[in-house]
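Quick log. Single chain, no ligands specified.
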Amino acid sequence: MLEKNPEIDKAAAILRAGGLVAFPTETVYGLGADARNREAIARLYVAKGRPARHPVIVHIADVIQLQQWACDITPVAQKLARAFWPGPLTLVLRRAAGVHDEITGGQDTVGIRVPSHPMARLLLSAFGGGIAAPSANRFGHVSPTTAQHVKQEFGDSVALVLDGGACEVGIESTIVDVTGSSPVLLRPGHISALRIRDATGVSPAMPAAGSPRAPGTLAAHYAPRTPLEIVQAGLMEKRAQELTRDGKRVAILARVSTLRAGTAWIAAPTEAAGYAHDFYANLRTLDAAGCAVILVEGLPDTPQWAAINDRLGRAAVGSQRP
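-> predicted structure:
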């Protein structure tokens, strides 16, 4: 267990005063505000440039606090909380009375999770309430997995950035709608559909037209500023040659070496957990390399790569925006 950081009490005081604090979780760094303070939530949305109808996740210290934020806690919700909290799982439930529209995007549901990162848990314990915390980056951009990423993104505009090292998981939490009798997978993550099935006895369904809106599920998201292309592994060399012949410097993220003149290249881990851990940091490094395009090797279409493929596909769409 991490020893108490002298900045934890300072961070809790900033939150109580309506300020913003960035802090580590096991998934990515979050930009936190007091989830009961409407003015603080408004500051959070302005800082990120986040659309008002896009909900945020409330982080709590313990499952005991769940009834302060949610009602109609279903048996499937109870099973998943027992199996995966603290951990990288967000449950979407019916919101309790007093939960502000600013948190839910005006919906009758609210996303809740209990993070496992020791520093996040110390902060939640010291603060004593719920912390609304989307990822600590400008809306739609690459998520941060180190304190330095947060500082690069916001400069001095965030009152305090707690440094808990690199995030263990590296991609955002799995989000599951548990308002009904069966789970619905709104966003894939480290906790797979198979593990959800094992915990509940039911395979999660995919979102339908009436499913709650969830963070990180827009078509364009997680995007670098440099245009990003996904390239089939066997075609990477050909595509890089085409671009470099045109005088363009190319950045490449691949699990095998394709380093050549005119390219900046990062060798990605070959297994899914390691790839996810490094993914956003690698995108940020290549985004800063001064290249005309980032080429990312296409990944296997298998369950263990589902969450990474989800982020990669949205990043490619987002990077092409005007």
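Residues 7-200 form a domain with the DHBP synthase fold (CATH 3.90.870.10).
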